[in-house]
Each structure stands twice: as C-alpha cells, then as structure tokens.
Amino acid sequence: MGNYIYLALVIISFYGLSKLFVKAGEAAWKGFVPFYNFYVLSKLLNKPWWWCLIMVVPGVNLMMYGVYGFNVARAFNKAETKDLVFASIMPYLFFVVAGHDKDAKFVGLDRYKKEPSAFVKNWLDPIIFAVIAASIIRTFFLEAFTIPTSSLEKSLMVGDFLFVNKLAYGPKIPQTPIAFPFAHHTLPFTATTKSYLEWIKLPYTRLPGMGNPKNGDIVVFNYPDGDTVFLNMQDISYYQGIRQVAQLMKHEDAANSQQLKSDNQYQQQAWDYMHNPANPNPFNGQPIGEIAARPADKREHYVKRCVAIGGDKIEIKDGEIFINDSKQEMPEYAQHKYFVTTKGAIFGERMENKQGRVVLSNQALLDELDIYVTEADLENTKTDTCIYLLNMPRTKIESVKKIPGVISIERKIEPKGERDLTIFPHHPSYAWNNDNFGPLQIPAKGMTLKIDTGNICLYEKILSTYDNGIHQIEKKNGQVLYDGKPISEYTFKQDYYWMMGDNRHNSADSRSWGFVPFDHVVGKPVFVWFSMKYADNNPVSGKSVLGSIFKNSKEGKFRWERFLCYVGDNGLVSMKTPVIAIILILWGYSYYKKRRKPKTTDAKN
User: Fold this and answer.
1) pTM
2) Does a structural domain hold residue 572?
3) Burial 158-175 (b: 16+ CB within 10 A, else e)
4) pLDDT for 22 beyond 90
5) CA 213 to CA 215: how far, in whole Å?
6) 62: domain range?
7) Nearest alpha-carbon partner for 571 in 156, 220, 32
8) Residues 48, 122 within the same domain
C-alpha cells in the first residue's frame, strides 16, 4: 500500500510542477516528464543541472524532494517559516498548493544570493549535501564496516575497520529507501528501535558489477538467517534459538521420565513458547521480548570466505574442504581447535572476568600469543597434567610447542557420523558436523535438481523463501508439494554460495544456516584503514589507548602493520607509502594555491 501512496504523491507533485511551470513561463507539459521536469526546475532555480540526476537514487531522492521544495518556496515568494517547513517536509502537496495560490509568483532566488541566512549558508546547506553525497557513495560505491567477530581470524581480525567495494558484484538498490541516514537496521543509541520504515518497498534490483563471487573471495553479505530476530537477543539466530529450546524441552521430559514426543511436536512447542514476549528466556532468564522480521537489505552484515559457488559440490572430510572432489588449499591463517597437553596449568585455570565471561587465568601468556579464549577451554585436569582446547592458526603451533611444559598438540577433529544439532540441515537423516560435512550440491541459476522427501530439507528454505518469493512447501503421501502441487524437480532462479569462516571451529557460517543467495551479496572488502585490539580478546595489550600510542603492535592496542592496507587474495598489502604520499601531495597543492592566490590578486590590482 505504501508504494501506491508514494506513487500517488509523486504524480500529484508532477501536476503541481506543471502549474508552477506555467507561473514561471514554461510549458505545463514539462512538469509531467519524469527527471526532465526536475532538470527544468533546476534551471529555473539557477541550481546545478545534475541535481535532477540525484532524483534517480532511491532514498536520497526523498531528501532531494525536500531540498527542491525549500528552494521552490523561496523562488515563488512563499518564504515564511510555515511555508518553508511545509515545502521541505511535504513538497509533493506544497507544489500543488503553491501552483493554485494566486499570491505565489515566480520571483527567482536572486534576492537570496546577496544575504542568505547564515545558518542556511554555513550549516544547513553543507550538512544536507554532505549527507546526500555520503549516502550515494555508501549505497553505490564504498561503505565502511567494522569486523565484530573472530570468524575470519587471522585473515580479517576483530577490530579491523575497512571499506567494502559495492561495485565488485554490483550495488543493490535499497529495498527500504525510507531510512535514517548511515544507520543499518537500528537507530543510534537504541537497542531495538528500527531505523527504517517499510511504507515503501522496492523490488530487488542490482546494478551491473565487475563480476560475481569466486571461490576464495572474502565476501560481505546480508545474513540469510537474519530474516527474523529476537530483539532482546540479537546475537543468536532466531531459528537456532527455537531449535535449542526444543532440545531443552526434550531433555527435560527425558530427565523427568516423561513420554517423549516427536521432534516436530517439540519444535512447535518451542515456537509457541518463544513467541510469547512475557515468557522468561531459557538462556538468561530475562523476558523474551518482541520478535521482528527484517527485509533482506536490513539484515545483519556478515563477512566470510566464499568456499563454493553455484554449480559446485562441496564436501568436508576431517576438516579439509573438497570442491568437486578436489582438495582445497587451506587459507594461510585458518584456525582450528587443538588439544594442548601440558605439565601443570600453564595457560591457567578457569575464571570469570569482569564482563562475566569464563576465561583462562594466564591472560598475559594468551595475550602474548594473541590466542582468544572465548569459552572455558580447560578440558581436563589431572594430578600434574592439563589438557587445554585452544583455538589457533597452524602458524602458532611451533610457538606453543616451544613453551616449557607443553607435552603435545593434537588437532581436534569431529568424527564422521557424529551429528551436530547446530549443523545444517538440522535433520536426523544428515549426521553432519563442522569437520565432516556433505557432499552437498550448491545450486546455480538455471540448474535443475531432483527434489524428493529425502533431500527437500536441504533446499526447502530456497524454495519457500529465497528463490522466487514466499511459497508453501509440504511433505505429503511421500511427495513434496510446492504450493499444493507435487514436484519431483526444481530449476533455480539465482546463484547460491557457500560461505565459511577461516576460524573453522568458531564461526557461525553456511554450515550452520545453509546457502547464501546472490541477492544477499553486498560487496568485497578492499581496504583496512585502521585496526585495533579489544580488551575482551586481548585483556593485557588491548586495554590502554593513550598508553599504546608509542608501543608496537604486540605490546599495544593498535595493530600498526594493518593500518592503510589493501585486502588482497593472499592477505593484506600495505599501502602506507602511496597513501601518505598522496595526502602530502594534496596538502602541498592546497598550500601552494593559498599562497599564490593573494599574489595573483595583488598583481591584478
């Protein structure tokens, strides 16, 4: 409905422009030609012609309507405060009102050139056009991101501040264009308030890009499982939360010697429980709160490595990835969990830090090694022997081996056939886990696959949600029903990707929630401009800001070697020298122009 209302307002505004054009000596028909009408209006207002091009950009054009309205009010002699506010907030209707107002005469904006309002000149105009310019850049070219999780450690690290190139795979037109500038899905300084309105929804549209994601690319995308969220616990998947509560209910019945129900019954029971906002959250005891749905462009941003593309067959055997039966080279900084056996509690005992996280007490040693302890990683304690489960890249193994008291290091492998309930497709017929997964066919656009009751759980979300709008998928009488009609095969409408973190045992990725549709792909990280440690992960070196300015990367908070780096296929490439050189050249040129300007002026006088 919102789309139709907005379309009606636009048509009304065109009618109003036609009336205003007549007052200004232009032909009325020009007001009805999209974009050309704003070209004509720009000329009447003595504004740059390219203002009309901004009207093409969804979201930004809403701001430009207000800018045009403000200037039209002044140009047609309606410069009182109430008129300016009306014209800026609701220009669509103002154009009509002014077009029929006998007192609205075209006088132009020349009288405002001599003495514009200081507030408008020095603050309002620069701020509005800075927001408009930044919005265009952010939507179509580059957007700033921060790496919040350790999924890609140590390739991209927690605390990396980077720019993402949206031209890499083609920028997407915003599907919810009415939004607070520079906010993603939540208003600043709030925890649950939406930053966007869904009155106007645009269909998915992607402009041409430089290509599609390839095997090995690091890709930023909208989190597919984020279409629904618990607003009071946005750090967990809504669907995984329902599954976990279903398992808790099943275990509770088993512990109380109750007759067990089917998995589908527990799933429904958990869904009913978690959809009551007043019920206590089983994970933290707080009220569950509201549940919200998010459009695709407002889902959480994730960054992972694309390990398989549409058309590939993926399989994981003992932690090694095979694409189309060919073993893939492990990323240089890929991390795995290792059982580290030590003589004595070298890495410390379990303890709770100030934030309530369970960590190991020898924080100084772990910080020095740059190994993050995200859970109670002390597996076993005997008389004088401890077994730790440490998550680290293979490049750290030799350093850990050299520590006095380390007896052995053995990589943890989840055995084949041992089902992990958190692993896709969350079905008892597929006993898959992080280290032994598949084989699984990744769908490609135009590919046709056979569909039956045995494999529908692999592709159900694609058929029901991602591929061609919302559809009803059922299993009935040994058949798969698609909107009530039996199907035995399906042809996919877009490409899909398999995204994984380099931090293989500490990453919520496609192994947890499945495929990433191409319409969820956002862009490719291209430049790390700043990087720092957080005290949560580096409790010793990551504490002090001022105290780290003159410290090296190992001892201080700032990772100096990661500043001003291009994100290459094989890691970061330092760009410090050319970036600093360009800054110095621009500064020198600006300084030269300022020094030369007075001399030129004096010579003319």
Assistant:
1) 0.86
2) no
3) bbbbbbbbbbbbbbbbbb
4) yes
5) 7
6) 2-140
7) 156
8) yes
CA distance 556 to 370: 12
Angle among Cα 164, 136, 122 to the nearest 5 degrees reads: 120
**Helix H or strand E encompassing 308:** strand 301-308
* CA nearest to 318, candidates 412, 242, 455, 382: 412
The answer on 21 and 118 residing in a single domain is yes
Residue 56 lies in a domain: yes
Whether residue 534 lies inside any domain: the answer is: no
Whether residue 405 is found in the same domain as residue 454: no
State which of 456, 491, 526 marks the end of a domain.
Answer: 491
Cβ–Cβ under 8 Å, residues 76 and 106? yes
Burial grade of 495 (CB within 10 A; 0-12, 13-18, 19 or more): buried
Number of folded domains that form the chain: 3
Residue whose pair of structure tokens reads 């042809």 in the numeric block: 491
For 455-514, what is each residue's pLDDT tens digit? 999 999 999 999 988 999 999 999 999 999 999 999 999 999 999 999 988 888 999 999
Q: Are residues 351 and 461 in the same domain?
A: no
| Within a domain: 583 | no
Q: Which secondary-structure segment (H or E) carries 531?
A: strand 521-531
Classify burial at 124, counting beta carbons within 10 Å of its beta carbon; exposed 0-12, middle 13-18, buried 19 or more: middle
Amino acid at 98: A
Has residue 168 got a pLDDT over 50? yes
pLDDT of residue 3: 76
pLDDT of residue 605: 47
- Closest by CA to 40, choosing from 58, 21, 63, 15, is 21
**Do 390 and 477 reside in the same domain of the chain?**
no
Mean pLDDT of the chain: 89
pLDDT band, residue 321 (cuts 50/70/90):
very high
Residue owning tokens 């597996």: 379
State whether 14 and 127 are in the same domain. Answer: yes
Question: Contact, 437 vs 425, CB < 8 A?
Answer: no
Please state which of the ranges 138-147, 202-211, 243-252, 365-374 shows the lowest mean pLDDT: 365-374
Domain C-terminal end among 427, 460, 491: 491
Distance CA 342, CA 405 (A): 5
Q: How many CB atoms lie within 10 A of CB 154?
A: 20
Where does the pLDDT of residue 29 fall: very low under 50, low under 70, confident under 90, or very high at 90 and above?
very high
pLDDT at 396 over 60: yes
Rounded mean pLDDT, 580-600: 79
Whether residues 473 and 397 fall in one domain? no
C-alpha–C-alpha distance, residues 434 and 452, integer Å: 25
pLDDT tens per residue, range 439-455 = 999 999 999 999 999 99
Place of tokens 């492998």: 413
CB atoms closer than 10 angstroms to residue 329: 9
Over residues 501-529, the mean pLDDT reads 93
> Do 350 and 453 share a structural domain?
no
First to last CA, the chain: 64
